[in-house]
């Protein structure tokens, strides 16, 4: 059985940063993730997508952020169990937890930090009759490598941040980009909305609002997207790729059976230290909920920091926690 101080469920950016904050307190961490690599959504869904709200980085690619986080935590030598889903937990006689994965791996720790992002997720798909026949044949729900779209004709559908951000990015990659949204108003960041309108006004993208895809056609591979637009009626748009970005449907998976207080697929926490209703279990990042919650990576970093301070006191109640700035005590790993 693997033993550690903090068992982190989820190896996304918040889970990785938790290793750093715990390491400063000389607490060891082991991470479990159902994905085969560290980085969570940043690695699996959009490694080439630029992120703009990380302090000190005007822009950083998602995959590069993961690389930097891995470099940052390397001195603390965390353990990883990747490609295995956290399945069940059991309270031991010493009040610690034993977590068992779907492949039978057992990990023991006094504290569990759930940093599972959105949990298990799947893309929301548009209700098109023949959609499944074009999946991986011109229809993609996730952009993993933007180079796949170089000099191609692309139709993006959606009105949130992902649709806006990828439209902006692909404008410099694809031969032709069309963004369609069923409303006139967008849900994304105002700055991104402004950039999209600027690109449309400059003729660098086509923008169709009050519009939605109503059909797809092609002979084995996608060749056209049929669009219904309020003013122009039906439009047949020749395209190589159709990318509906309507968000993800989150599911907690087995975590939902751990006795935690759940509200709309998110775990309720106390904002004092992001503890749950189960003693010794914390939840940080997108998977938790509380009044005023913002699902931003930098907010997850803050939550991880306070959680580790509380976890130290829980694990070592007889030791005095002397907090020092990293500029004072530096960063030293475990020898």
Shape: elongated
> What is the helix tally?
8
- Mind describing the biggest β-sheet? 5 strands, parallel
Q: Roughly what fraction of the amino acids lie in strands? A: 25-35%
Unreliable parts: none
Q: Which class do the helix and strand fractions yield?
A: alpha/beta
Q: Mind telling me the CATH class of the largest domain?
A: Alpha Beta
Give the N-to-C terminal Cα separation.
Answer: 22 Å
Tell me the quaternary state. Answer: single chain
* pLDDT averaged residue by residue: 90
Write down the domain tally: 2
CATH architecture of the largest domain: 3-Layer(bba) Sandwich
The tally of beta strands, per DSSP, is: 23
Rg, Cα atoms, Å = 22 Å
Q: CATH superfamily of the largest domain, called what?
A: FAD/NAD(P)-binding domain
Determine the fraction of residues in helical runs and give it as a percent range.
10-25%
Topology-level CATH name of the largest domain: FAD/NAD(P)-binding domain
Strand order in the sheet with the most strands: 6-3-2-10-22
